[in-house]
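for the writeup, i need someone to sanity check this before i put it in the appendix. the sequnce is what the collaborator sent (i think, or maybe the updated version? ugh). structure was predicted straight from it, no edits. if anything looks off just tell me and ill rerun, i have time this weekend
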Amino acid sequence: MSGFGYVVSAGGVRALEPHEAVAAHGDFIWIHLTSRDEEVQAWLRDHARLDRFTIDALTALETRPRCDQIGSAAILNLRGMTRATMQSSDPLASIRLHADGRRVYSVTRLPLDAIDAARKAIEGGSIEDAGDLIARLAEAITEQLDPEVADLGDSLDLCEQQLDAHQAFELRRNVNIARRTAIGYRRFLYPQRIALEKLAALEVGWLSDDDRLHIAAAADRAARMAEELESIRERAALIHETLTDLRAELIDQRSLLIAVVAMIFLPLTFITGLFGMNVDGIPYQHHAGSFWAITIFSLLIAAGVGGWFIRRHWFRN
């Protein structure tokens, strides 16, 4: 298990180990733990003295964004960007928080990028209480997700500009990647918006009006990104259908060309097969110019059949 702790008091900000911070005194204490095993559960039970429900909420394996109030405390689950390799169906790492005004316990299983922004803010003196910390985390998560969502939209814009049946395989792969990523992000952004809105409306004294405004702004940005991701998903489906149609049209054109060539050679095959029979009685069998006569006749037939197809505009796209 790894982690860190910060103690904020009138004398400034002190960075301590989790076991030191839990026993320290100050105006505000933040303890963050990172682990993949049951050691965190034991630490939260034995050192933080949290109840079983809170410990289970902070260490659950599968979490969706949510917010629950327990007395004057709040349990909050959020999802944000991570440097770790994630599956396309689950692209965001989770952070679970328990805040009661004086103390905030946060737990992650993977490194969360927003944690670095919060640590810089608390070391810079701009975080003084639990409301400030949660508002900063919510802002950092949405700020880091915003350009990722914009990049997905830009990638689809590029695919739309390059729509070509001859590049269908590469474009379809890029569109599918954008679509899967958008679905994975939207899966968590919509409930995250609801969780942040619920947090901003909690009747707890440690959330100031300014904190509520910042959390509400993060919720609005999450809602906007969720709507943009839904639009990206729909656009990706339309681009995929367009590529399928273009590919089918290209195959139809090639099939038509093959059919026309076959129609041109069909009478030629009949003529050459008829005069190529190895039987007696074939006309002009011993005539000196019969070969060239049949050849010229076959070319004239081919030209006539090809000209008929051209006049009928069979080769027009």
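Residues 209-275 form the longest helix (67 residues). The beta strands are 2-9, 12-16, 28-34, 66-70, 73-80, 93-99, 103-108.
thx in advance!!
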